[in-house]
Write a structure and sequence with these properties.
- It is a single chain.
- The chain is mainly β.
- The chain contains 12 helices and 48 strands.
- The chain is about 10% helix and about 50% strand.
- It is globular.
C-alpha cells in the first residue's frame, strides 16, 4: 500500500516536473495559438479558451468516445469528481435513483449544475440537481468550471459549475440506438434509442426549432447473481487468517423473540433478552438464516436473516426525455429563444421482505409454545412485554416504484442595444416524485387480523404456509402511493455587458446583472399513509416550504497589457427566512452577504500561460436542515449494542436502532474562501500540459453527527439519543437523533493536472491525454466539535466516505479516416476501509474495529468507431475489459449492498455495447 502511494505521488511529481521543465526549456519553441472557445464562468461574452479560470470542455465526439450512456456515467467518471450520489443507493433509500455531481469532493450541494447556462429545479429542499433530468441526446458539449463562481452565479457554486450546452440551429435529423450487456450473466442489460431533428436555418430562415427524444431502459441485477455481493454473512481471508463478516438482520423468518421484564425497585434488574425459538428447539437455523456471530451472548441467541439473498444490486428503471429548443431572430440584433425539457424516470427498487414486529400476549398459545419453555422461573414471573421480530418473507420483497418527473421551461431574449450586449430570461422548473409501494408491504387491518386469528404462523420455517394462508397473504399486500413531493423553481435573470475604455491589452469591459429565484418544496403523504393503512409504517411528514433569493452582481474585465488580464466580480445576495405553510410561520432568519472574486492571467507567450484567482462564497443551509420537524428516518446503517444501558429501552444484543431526523432553526449560513493558481503550456501543436492548484475552506459547514461518532462516545452525545415507539407493538426503544448542525470547518485542497500529446502518422492521428486530480487535503472538524480535526484521505472517515488522493484517467485515440479506436484507462488508489466487527474463524473470537486495506481499482475500456458513410456510423466497445470485480469492502452505508462499495467500483463488470447513429 505504501509502495503504491509513493509510486503514485512520484508519478504526479514527475508530471509536474516535466511540465515545469518544458516551460523553461521550450518556451521559445515553435509556437501554436491556443484554440479559443466561449468560456463558462463569465458574464462578459468573449472568446478565450484559456482564461483566468480552469475549465474542462467535453465535445460531442469526446463524450461519444467515452462510451457513457447517461449524463451521470459521463460526469461521475471524471477525475475531478468525488463525493456524489450514485443511483445504486436507491436499493434501500427513497432517493428514487437520484444521481448528482460533486467537484473535488467538496459536496453535491456546492456544485452548481446548469442547462444552457440557467438553473434547474433541484430534487429535495436544497440545491442538488438530479442529473437524470438532463436530456443526454441533446447535449452538444459540457463545460466544467472547477473553481468557485458564487460571485457570479450565486451561493451554491462554491465548488464549481457544470454547464450542459445543448444543440442549437441543427438542420436535419439523426437517430441513435445503443445496446449494452454485461458478460457475467443475462441480467443487467441496458438500451436506448434517441431521435433528434432540426427545422429551419437560423442564418437563412431567421428561425430554428430543435426537437429531441430519448428512451432508456436498464434491467435489474440481483445481488445473488454476483459472487462479490451474494451474502450478508461474508467469509474472507486476510494474511492467512479466515474471518467472517456478519451483516445479517435480527428480523428473521421464522421470527425471533424479544422479552422485556418488570424491574421493581429493590431487586436486581433483568435485562431484556432475545432468542430464536427455532434455534433453541433444533440447534441450528433454517434456510436463509445463520447463527449470528454478534447475537449469541447471555442476552441474545438469534438466528439472523441473510437479507442479501433477496435484494437487488442494480434496480430496473426506464427513462423518457424530451427536449425542444426554439430560436427566432428579431431583426438584426435580437434573438428570442425558448428551451423546454421534460423527463420521466421510472425506477422500481426491490429490497428485503418487510420487517414486521408483533406482540405476543403472555399465556397465549404462541407464548406457551415458543417463549415460555426458554425462560427461567424468575423470568416467567417478571415478564412485562413479549414481541416477535418477524421477516415477512412470504409477502415477497418490498417493491417501491418511484416516478420522478422533471419539467423545465425557459423563455428569453439575447441582443444588443446602445452598445450593450444583453441577455435575460424567465425560468420555470419543477422536479417531482411520486413514491408508490407495489409489493411486499402489508395492509394493517388484514395483517393484524391474520395475527389475531392465527391464520399464519410467524414461527414456521419459510415456505410452509398453507394455500389458504397464501391467498390471505396475497389479499393483504398494499398497493398504492405513499407520498408525492416536488420542488419548484421560479426565476428571472437579466445581464448585460458593455465596453468601457481602451487599455494596453484591449478594451476594458463591464458586466452587470441581477437575478431572482423562488424555491417551493412540498411533500404530501397519501391518505393511506396517514390513516394507518400500512402495517408498522411511519407516515412521511407534510412539508410546504418556500424561500426566495435575490442577487445582483458586477464584473469588470481589464486587459492591462497584451499579456496581463485581470477580472474582478462582486455580488450581493439576500436569502429570506423559510415560509412554513404547514406550521403557518416563518422559520429561521433572513441572511444577506456580499461575495467577491478576483482573477488574473499572464500569458508571456502564445505557448505559456499563468493564471490565478481568489474569491469568497456564501450559502444558506437547505430548507429541511432548518425547518424539518422531528420525523422517523429509517434505521442505523450498522448494528450496534445498546447505547445507554436501560432494562426497557435497550434492544437485546446487537441490532439496528431507529433513526429520527430534525432540522435546526439556529443554523447559520456557510461561508467560504477559495483560491486557484495554475498554468498552461503548449509549446507546439503536438503537446500541451497544465496544472491547477486549488484550495477551498468552508466555515460553519452543515453536517450531522454520524452514528459511528455517537456510539463511540454516547456520553458526549447523550442529547442525540431519544426514544422511538414501534407502531406495530407499542414498544419503546432507544433511537438515534440525526439533527443538522454547523460542524465548524472543512478544508479541501488538490491539484488538477493534464498532459496531452498528438502525433500525425501517415495513416492517421494519435491523440493521448493523461489527466487526474491529486488531493492534498480532505480535512473537516468532527460534527459536534469546533476544532477537533479529522480527515478521510484514503481512509473511511466519520463522514462514511473516502477521499481518494489519486484519481487518474488515460485516454488515447487513433483516428484513421473512417476508422477510429479509443482506449480509456481509469485508476483510483486503494484505501483503508470502514471499521467492522468480524469473527476470527481460527480462534472463534470477535474482532472489533477491524479495517480492511482495500486495493486500488484499475479498469480498461475500448471503443471502435467506423463511419460507413457520412450518414451512418457504428460504434462497438467493451468496458472493463479485464472484468475487474469490485474489491471487498465491509462498509455498511449508502445502500443495501454488502461486500463491496458501489460508490467506488462499478458492479456491472465487463460490458459489451454497440451504438449506431444515422443522420438524415
Amino acid at each position: 500500500m505504501m509502495l503504491k502511494e509513493k509510486m503514485g505521488a512520484r508519478a504526479v511529481r514527475l508530471a509536474f516536473g516535466l511540465v515545469a521543465g518544458l516551460a523553461v526549456t521550450q518556451a521559445m519553441a515553435q509556437e501554436a495559438p491556443i484554440q479559443r472557445v466561449e468560456v463558462t464562468g463569465s458574464a462578459i461574452k468573449r472568446i478565450n479558451v484559456e482564461g483566468a479560470l480552469p475549465i474542462q470542455t467535453l465535445s460531442q465526439e469526446a463524450i461519444a468516445k467515452t462510451g457513457a450512456t447517461s449524463v451521470a456515467e459521463l460526469i461521475q467518471t471524471l477525475p475531478a469528481m468525488q463525493g456524489f450520489t450514485i443511483g445504486a443507493i436507491a436499493a434501500g433509500t427513497n432517493s428514487g435513483g437520484r444521481v448528482s455531481a460533486s467537484i473535488h469532493d467538496i459536496g453535491e450541494t456546492y456544485t452548481l449544475v446548469l442547462l444552457n447556462g440557467r438553473r434547474l429545479a433541484p430534487q429535495g429542499s436544497g440545491s442538488t440537481v438530479n442529473l437524470q433530468a438532463i436530456p443526454m441526446s441533446a447535449v452538444e458539449r459540457v463545460e466544467i468550471l472547477t473553481d468557485g463562481a458564487s460571485a457570479l452565479y450565486g451561493s451554491d457554486a462554491i465548488a464549481g459549475v457544470i454547464n450542459f450546452v445543448l444543440k442549437k440551429n441543427q438542420q436535419g435529423g439523426d437517430i441513435e440506438a445503443n445496446y449494452s450487456q454485461p458478460t457475467a450473466g443475462q441480467d443487467g442489460g441496458s438500451r436506448y434509442v434517441a431521435a433528434t431533428y432540426g427545422f429551419g436555418d437560423l442564418d437563412n430562415d431567421g428561425w430554428n426549432v430543435l426537437v429531441s427524444y430519448r428512451r432508456d431502459e436498464q434491467d435489474q441485477i440481483l445481488s445473488t447473481k454476483r459472487d462479490f455481493s451474494n451474502t450478508a454473512f461474508r467469509q474472507f481471508s486476510r494474511n492467512g487468517t479466515n474471518y467472517v463478516y456478519d451483516n445479517t438482520s435480527t428480523a428473521s423468518a421464522p421470527a425471533n423473540v424479544t422479552v422485556a421484564f418488570r424491574n421493581p425497585a429493590g431487586v436486581p434488574a433483568l435485562p431484556s433478552i432475545g432468542f430464536s425459538p427455532y434455534l433453541l428447539a433444533n440447534g441450528n437455523c433454517p434456510e436463509l438464516n445463520v447463527v449470528s456471530i454478534n447475537n449469541n451472548g447471555t442476552t441474545a441467541r438469534n438466528c439472523t436473516f441473510d437479507y442479501i439473498q433477496t435484494v437487488e444490486m442494480v434496480p430496473e428503471n426506464k427513462r423518457d426525455s424530451f427536449f425542444v429548443k426554439g430560436t427566432k431572430k428579431l431583426g438584426d440584433n435580437w434573438e428570442a429563444f425558448t428551451d423546454i425539457a421534460y423527463s420521466r424516470f421510472d425506477l422500481t427498487a426491490r429490497i428485503a421482505p418487510n420487517t414486521a414486529p408483533f406482540t405476543i400476549a403472555a399465556g397465549s398459545p404462541q407464548f406457551n409454545q415458543y417463549v415460555a419453555p426458554y425462560l427461567t422461573a424468575e423470568q416467567l414471573g417478571r415478564v412485562n412485554t413479549v414481541s416477535g421480530n418477524y421477516r415477512a418473507y412470504d409477502w415477497g420483497t418490498r417493491d417501491s416504484q418511484t416516478i420522478t418527473e422533471s419539467k423545465h421551461a425557459v423563455a428569453g431574449l439575447d441582443g444588443e442595444i446602445a452598445g450593450w450586449t444583453v441577455s435575460g430570461a424567465l425560468t420555470w422548473s419543477e422536479n417531482s416524485i411520486d413514491e408508490r409501494y407495489v409489493g411486499g408491504y402489508m395492509r394493517n387491518a388484514e395483517f393484524r387480523s391474520m395475527l389475531a386469528n392465527n391464520a399464519f404462523n410467524p414461527f414456521a420455517p419459510i415456505g410452509q404456509q398453507s394455500p389458504a394462508t397464501q391467498q390471505l397473504i396475497e389479499n393483504s399486500i398494499f398497493h398504492g402511493s405513499i407520498r408525492e413531493a416536488s420542488t419548484t423553481l421560479k426565476a428571472a435573470d437579466v445581464r448585460g455587458s458593455h465596453e468601457l475604455f481602451n487599455l494596453g491589452g484591449g478594451m476594458a469591459q463591464l458586466a452587470i446583472g441581477a437575478d431572482y429565484r423562488e424555491y417551493h418544496y412540498q411533500q404530501d403523504p397519501s391518505a393511506d399513509a396517514v390513516n394507518g393503512v400500512i402495517y408498522n409504517f411511519n407516515a412521511p411528514a407534510r412539508y410546504d416550504l418556500t424561500r426566495d433569493n435575490a442577487g445582483a452582481f458586477a464584473e469588470v474585465l481589464a486587459p492591462i497589457t497584451k499579456e496581463i488580464e485581470v477580472t474582478a466580480a462582486l455580488r450581493y445576495d439576500t436569502i429570506s427566512a423559510i415560509d412554513d405553510g404547514v406550521r403557518g410561520r416563518k422559520v429561521g432568519s433572513d441572511h444577506s452577504k456580499s461575495t467577491y472574486k478576483v482573477s488574473a492571467r499572464w500569458q508571456p507567450s502564445q505557448a505559456l500561460l499563468f493564471r490565478g484567482s481568489y474569491g469568497t462564497g456564501f450559502k444558506a443551509p437547505d430548507m429541511l436542515d432548518i425547518a424539518q420537524p422531528l420525523v422517523n428516518a429509517g434505521f442505523t446503517a450498522s448494528s450496534w449494542g445498546c447505547p445507554i444501558q436501560d432494562p426497557t429501552l435497550c434492544r437485546p444484543g446487537t441490532t439496528q436502532y431507529n433513526v429520527l431526523s430534525s432540522g435546526n432553526e439556529n443554523m447559520r449560513p456557510e461561508t467560504s474562501k477559495q483560491f486557484t493558481v495554475g498554468m498552461r503550456f503548449e509549446p507546439t501543436a503536438r503537446f500541451s500540459a497544465g496544472l491547477d492548484l486549488w484550495d477551498v475552506k468552508i466555515k460553519d459547514a452543515v453536517s450531522a453527527v454520524s452514528e459511528q461518532q455517537a456510539w463511540a462516545n454516547p456520553d458526549q452525545f447523550r442529547q442525540l439519543f431519544s426514544t422511538y415507539t414501534e407502531p406495530a407493538t407499542g414498544n419503546t426503544y432507544w433511537a438515534f437523533l440525526r439533527s443538522s448542525v454547523n460542524i465548524g470547518q472543512t478544508h479541501n485542497r488538490g491539484i488538477d493536472w493534464d498532459l496531452t500529446g498528438r502525433h500525425r502518422f501517415g495513416f492517421g492521428n494519435l491523440t493521448t491525454t493523461l489527466n487526474g486530480t491529486y488531493m492534498l487535503k480532505s480535512d473537516y472538524t468532527r460534527a459536534g466539535t469546533a476544532n477537533d480535526w479529522t480527515n478521510s484521505m484514503n481512509y473511511f472517515g466519520t463522514n462514511n466516505a473516502v477521499t481518494f488522493r489519486h484519481i487518474v484517467r488515460l485516454s488515447t485515440s487513433l483516428d484513421t479516416g473512417k476508422l477510429s479506436n479509443s482506449l480509456i484507462v481509469n485508476y483510483r488508489n486503494g484505501y483503508t476501509d470502514a471499521a467492522a466487527t468480524v469473527r476470527n474463524l481460527d480462534t472463534g473470537v470477535n474482532v472489533t474495529g477491524f479495517r480492511l486495506e482495500v486495493p486500488s481499482f484499475l479498469t480498461f475500456d475500448w471503443q471502435g468507431r467506423y463511419a460507413f458513410t457520412d450518414a451512418f456510423t457504428l460504434r462497438a466497445g467493451m468496458k472493463n475489459i479485464a472484468n475487474r470485480k469490485p474489491p471487498l469492502s465491509l462498509r455498511a452505508s449508502s445502500g443495501h449492498q454488502v461486500g463491496f462499495d458501489p460508490r467506488y467500483a462499478d458492479p456491472l463488470g465487463r460490458q459489451l455495447y454497440v451504438t449506431g447513429n444515422y443522420k438524415f
